[in-house]
Amino acid sequence: MIRRLVRPLCAVVPLAVAAAAVMAAAATPGTTDAVVTDDGRRPVAEAVVSLTPLDRPAPAGQPGPAVIEQRDQQFDPYVLPVYVGTPVQFPNRDDIRHHVYSFSPAKTFELPLYVGTPPAPVVFDQPGVVALGCNIHDWMVAYVYVLATPYFATTGADGRARFADLPPGRYQAQVWHPRMRGAAERTTTLITVAPGEASEVAFVVALRPPRYAPKDPPQYERQQGG
Amino acid sequence: VRFGSYRGRLVLVFVGLFTVIQALSFVVVSAWVRVLARQEIEEELRLAGSLFIRQLELRTEQLVTATRLLSGDFALKTTVATTDHRTTWSVLENHRRRIGADVLMMVGLDGTVVADTLHPDRHGAVFPLRRLLDEAEDQHEASDLVALDGGLYRLAVATVLAPIPIGWLGAGFVIDDRTAGDLRDVTGLHVSFLRRDAGGVAVAASTLSAPDRTALSRDVPAARAAGLIALGGEPHVVRAERVSDDVLVVLQRPLAEALAPYERLRRTLLAVAAVGVVLAFVGASMLARRVSRPVLALAEAARRVARGDFAAGVAIPQRDELGELGATFNEMVSGLRERDRVRSELERAGRLKRFFSPQVAEALSSGDESILASRRREITVVFCDLRGFTAFAETADPEEVMGLLRDYHATVGPVVFAHEGTLERFTGDGLMVFFNDPIPCADHAVRAVRMAIAMRDAVGRLLAAWRARGHALGVGTGIAMGYATVGRIGFEGRFDYAAIGRVTNLSARLCQEAEDGQILISQRVHAEVAGLVDAVPLGAFTLKGFGTAVAVFNVLGLQASAPPAAVPPGAASKEAT
After folding, report:
1. Percent of chain A, pLDDT > 70?
2. pTM of the model
3. Inter-CA distances, B509 with B421, B439, B521, Å
4. What ipTM goes with this model?
5. SS (H, E, C) B449-504
6. pLDDT tens, position by position, B495-509
7. Which of A103, A140, A211 lies closest to B166 in CB terms?
8. Please, which residues 75-104 of chain B have a Cβ atom closer than 8 Å to chain A?
9. Measured between alpha carbons, how far apart are the two ends of chain B, in Å?
């Protein structure tokens, strides 16, 4: 769990450092905390908060390699936000085959029944939500959230995500969650990051019930709830 | 069976009572059965309704399962993802055949029809049942009975997940008359699907005939309330089940058919009652005959008794009141018979006594004719006649003669009877009496002599009056003792009781010899009575018919010391009657 939370941050931090280097002369970076709760005021984990700068074009991110494993007949991670153009590997850690597919317009692909790691990663070259499934295990679901901005983070169990070292300025903040009702665009909030200051943005999202619960394997429930 | 008769009334009462009881129980049971039948029918219909609903649900579940399976088909998902609607239609048609559905359709996430197997060209039209899509969105699948294309369909909708929703798959089975027929096979009831439309309700599918459908759609609101509907002029029990917002299932069954088992029960009851009445009739008749037979027998016997037939009796072997009555009756008849026998015997004896001595009369009247058999016995014979009677008869008027004879007989008769002598005959002025037959007595000679003395004295007093009128009349008596043949003599039609022998002749001769007032006795007689009477020897008489002279004694009278005659008291009193 921690690992899964840390990884997106790892992706953000080098970007932030790069941005800071660019804008070092202009201003001291600020910090923003995003808090996502559902309409019952409970923290929402695995929500992806993204920030799109309004005052200048979004800087290009580093499409570093990313991985979604299949382990214990589940995808791991459940939600993977990536910068557009990121190649993602789908190593199969189970001793049975999996058949990974997506019919999402942002990325349609199919990795027919295979074991081990496919020779070529899948490159997610269009922004959007890509829903992944396994043809032979209906309950196996994962999402690749392809973003055109380098500023994004996934909430932890406490529903919080931190953006450190943000260049000061105005941003459009959005949140997306696989079970969220309505489009991510509708959550757009304008925030302003002041130099050297910390700010906070709160999102309240309406979630629909998990699609596969309670028929799904218990380990899935743990991940969803955890 | 005449109902005026005792037997008839008995049967009538029995059978009537039994019939009333049977009728009452039949009416009660019948009414009770009717109530039960209505309850049973309602319950049956309710169960059938439940069964029906369950059947429908099962079929729907099967359809939903099939639809869900199809929706998970990867080829279908792949095809849908291509958005090539002709290929999609083709896949749907293929899959429709797999599950044997009547229609398969794919609806896009925007709620428009992507492909519809019923209409290959329909593409992009708004799917009319949005609520089913919403329900399937939330629940993964949904189903309902819906109106589609002017028909009634059981429609299941499943969300196609890849793995997020990419559309909805709908599968439908048409509900038509055949479906209704299948359900009728399962439930045994008429099945009608009624769909609410603008004008009211319309029959979408049914096992009923066309006119009945019209009647059903017209009358169903009232029928639901009453639980009954007239179809084809026949009442049907009705139950309606709402199976969806717009669809009502109506189950009907002919009331007569539902009541048939109870009707059979009723008929059986009736038959049992009828058989019971017949048996009661037969039983009552037999019983009545059993009861009345002795009564009739008694009546018949009583009639015979009334006619004087005392042989009439009844045979009632029963050991009850009637048996007792019969026995009592028999006793009574036997008493009557005995009394009658005694009376007729007395009458007969009375008649006989005019001709016979009481002893003979009694023996005869009691039926003992052995007395008439001839036998030899020692007897004492007394002859007695009037002296001078012939002369008197010649000179006197016949009336005087008859009067004298009447007086004479009236005088001697009682004396003969008093001494228990056997009066053998009257011969005008004479009479013959003998003793020791038929009534045996040891002292027959003594009795004969005593009687002769008594008779002489009595006739002497009678003759004194006649002599006073100038008639020379006297009485002579002869007594002899010896063996004689006694019994019936004569021929068939005319018999006499007589004693024949030398002793008879001797006493007759002695009588002829006797002077007026003389009682002549033979020596043997004298030997018997010597100590009792005063007798004087008259010497030896030569009598006609007797070769040797006979010693004769004349009895003067009883000695003074002689005891009075031992005459049985009954004899005199019997004579007095």
Report:
1. 81
2. 0.56
3. 20, 25, 11
4. 0.73
5. HHHHHHHHHHHHHHHHHHHHCCCCCEEEEEEEEEEEEEEEEEECCEEEEEEECHHH
6. 677 888 899 999 999
7. A103
8. 77-78, 80-81
9. 57
